TrEMBL record:
One of its GO terms (molecular function) is metal ion binding. InterPro entries: DIOX_N (IPR026992), IPNS-like_FE2OG_OXY (IPR044861), IPNS-like_sf (IPR027443), Oxoglu/Fe-dep_dioxygenase_dom (IPR005123). Keywords: Iron, Metal-binding, Oxidoreductase. It comes from Vitis rotundifolia (Muscadine grape). PROSITE patterns: FE2OG_OXY (PS51471). Its cofactor is Fe cation. Pfam families: 2OG-FeII_Oxy, DIOX_N. PANTHER family: 1-AMINOCYCLOPROPANE-1-CARBOXYLATE OXIDASE HOMOLOG 1-LIKE, OXIDOREDUCTASE, 2OG-FE II OXYGENASE FAMILY PROTEIN. Belongs to the iron/ascorbate-dependent oxidoreductase family. This is Fe2OG dioxygenase domain-containing protein. SUPFAM superfamilies: Clavaminate synthase-like (SSF51197). Residues 215-315 form the Fe2OG dioxygenase domain.
Amino acid sequence: MNQVEAEIGLRNEWNSEIKAFDDTKLGVKGLVDAGVLKIPRIFIHPQHNPLDKLACEDSQFSIPTIDLQGVNSDVILRAKAIEKIQNACEKWGFFQVVNHGIPKSDLEEMLAGIRRFHEQDAEVKKEFYSRDLKKKVVFLSNFDLFQAPTVNWRDTLGLNMDSIPPEPETLPAACREIAMGYSKQVHRLGITLFELLSVGLGLDANHLKDMECAERLSLLGHYFPPCPEPELTLGIRSHSDSGFMTILLQDQLGGLQVCHENQWVDVPPIPGALIVNVGDFLQLLTNDKLKSVHHRVIAKQAGPRISVACFFRTEFFDTEDNSRCYGPIQELLSEENPPVYQETTAEDYLKHYYSKGSGTASLLHLKF
């Protein structure tokens, strides 16, 4: 057997293992429930060095925490928040917000609802298992399972909560009411943040909203089961987000890390806080003014870890919106600040984004 034949054989074997895992419709939790003590090789990240986790433990860095109290009623507090958010998005691409208007009880119930869904009877959960992202509701493990070089130790419930949300009866009973209520509150918070970002960029307050940056919202409820060999894998590999902005709710277990000045910095859980980060499309629109940075979730023996990520995004599919061109905002350009990026459609960008697994140098190919 020559080298080419050997490589083809290994690839076919790998693909068979991926398919066998997907066919169970039980996700990573199914492996844990079966009592696995060694993680399957498809989850092993060969480039993952567990020692680089330690880089963040003695770090002098910490991501900014911003108080949103009074931003819609007090001019001085609003101006201070705008300055802090702008600075955080330019230097970090990440920040935490407190006093954001969503009750702590709703945050706790949203996390509990996602946990209830993932820990319910497997046969009930299987009914939602699908890789058809045109569906309003999908349960699956790893969106890029068949494209990525390795598999993340994580399962996901995905809910498309756009301006035309799913019919209530189509949502899983385990989290139906809280998902509908929470997504509406996150949408309102997102509009406020887009207004503050617009003003911080020197634009009209409604500029990003009028570009429909807050129009489409996806809620992803992630479940990270305890991992028997956390040093070999990741909950989510290093990536940047593809949309405009993400608002993340995480439980108190921790594990989220942000790459800042070439080192991994922990994003510590703050009770009642939400994490906000810039997506690739907002970096593109602002011509590199705001930064979409790489982040990851480390695997842990403790768990499960629960998080809820709400993505303000472009359209996914072949629609008129999907073929809309996006490029740097004209009002931000000048002779001193020429466009950094070519225009792209959401369709072309997302095909590139997912072609080798999400978030691999996803904007680099658009640079002039």
